[in-house]
Specification:
Blueprint (H helix, E strand, L loop, with lengths): L1 H8 L1 H9 L11 E5 L2 H14 L5 E5 L7 H6 L2 E6 L5 H12 L4 E5 L2 H10 L2 E4 L10 H14 L7 H14 L5 H13 L3 E6 L2 H18 L4 E4 L15 H7 E7 L5 H14 L5 E6 L5 H23 L7 H12 L1
Parallel strand pairs: 1-2, 1-3, 3-4, 4-5, 6-7, 6-8, 8-9
Helix pairs in contact: 2-7, 2-8, 3-7, 3-10, 8-13, 9-13, 10-13
Length: 333
């Protein structure tokens, strides 16, 4: 049970590793097509949040090829990211992109993606192996951001890496305020299906991360939704089964200074209108100045919550047996 905690606590070191990288020169691109799945795919979402303020478009593709028609016209940089190097959807997408004449860069530890990278001479950043892909988020995000620096798509991120690494260390330390908040949220979510609410470029992305970490580490169902969209549909879903939802569901909301001013108002009203039917277990504000640091601060709390829930439920957060079984079934087809 402690191995996943050690991997979560390595986030600061992963970000410091990224800060020491030399960005490879990739060219100049204002649009990026990112191919990745699972723990590798979320790195593209995080990079998109960092790139958003500077106007770089990062379209994250989570699936098989072919590349979308807009990419044929716009000729973006294709970044293919797979921690294992053997993710079949990403391999299919990168093959499609290369055959379509796109410039390709990769992030991986090895596998078939590394072989293709060597074969075609693609620009790449090799990340350290040995972690669960979902626990290598600092390596993957760091490598992707360095590639984006090398394509002139984002500004120099070294100061952001330093700030984010310091925050990650502080927040994952036992008995830190973030640790205590995570304990309170884990206690409140035990026996419940978590719903994570985000509300902007930062919180919407991290809400997705919380959801998938709860799935993989705690082995429980979870979902995420984003304001203000959920106020146009999901908010009515609490009206007819309050007895069930009060007992079995819990909401955690993530907030960030980058959220629209009206969103903060909406969160208050949404809570007021729904908490009689579903408990709001916690509201987690981001910390830090840079976009990356704010992403990391919310990530640290969510990762701790997922690990703490696994402990409470008596499950090992490391293995993902059902995913491995699915891969075996697909290999036989």
């Amino acid at each position: 049970m402690t191995d996943m905690l050690a991997q979560i606590r390595s986030l600061g070191d992963q970000l410091r590793w990224a800060a020491d990288l030399d960005p490879p020169h990739v060219g100049t691109f204002s649009e990026i097509l990112y191919a990745g799945m699972g723990g590798s795919g979320i790195a593209g979402d995080y990079a998109g949040a960092v790139a958003y303020p500077v106007g770089t478009r990062i379209a994250v593709h989570k699936g098989y090829g072919p590349i979308p028609p807009w990419a044929i016209r716009q000729r973006p940089l294709l970044i293919a990211a797979s921690y294992s190097g053997n993710t079949e959807e990403t391999l299919d997408m990168v093959t499609s992109a290369w055959e379509s004449g796109l410039t390709v860069a990769t992030v991986t530890t090895g596998g078939r993606l590394a072989e293709l990278t060597t074969q075609h001479g693609w620009r790449t950043i090799a990340v350290p192996p040995g972690l669960q892909p979902r626990a290598a988020v600092g390596y993957m995000v760091g490598a992707v951001l360095r590639l984006l620096e090398g394509s002139h798509s984002v500004d120099d991120q070294r100061l952001a890496f330093t700030e984010a690494a310091k925050l990650a260390d502080e927040m994952t330390a036992e008995d830190s305020p973030a640790w205590q908040q995570a304990e309170e949220i884990a206690e409140g979510l035990e026996g419940r299906i978590p719903i994570i609410y985000g509300a902007g470029p930062v919180t919407g992305v991290v809400a997705q991360r919380w959801k998938t970490q709860l799935n993989e580490n705690a082995k429980i169902p979870a979902w995420y939704s984003v304001l203000p969209e959920l106020d146009h549909n999901e908010i009515t879903g609490w009206e007819t089964m309050p007895g069930t939802t009060r007992e079995h569901v819990g909401i955690v909301a993530l907030t960030d200074p980058g959220d629209h001013d009206r969103v903060a108002i909406r969160i208050g009203h949404t809570r007021e209108l729904t908490e009689s039917a579903v408990p709001w277990v916690g509201v987690v504000p981001s910390s830090g100045t840079s976009t990356l640091a704010r992403l990391v601060s919310l990530t640290a709390v969510g990762d701790l919550v997922s690990w703490m829930l696994a402990e409470r439920l008596g499950v090992d957060p490391v293995p993902v047996a059902t995913i491995e079984e699915l891969k075996k079934l697909l290999a036989d087809d």
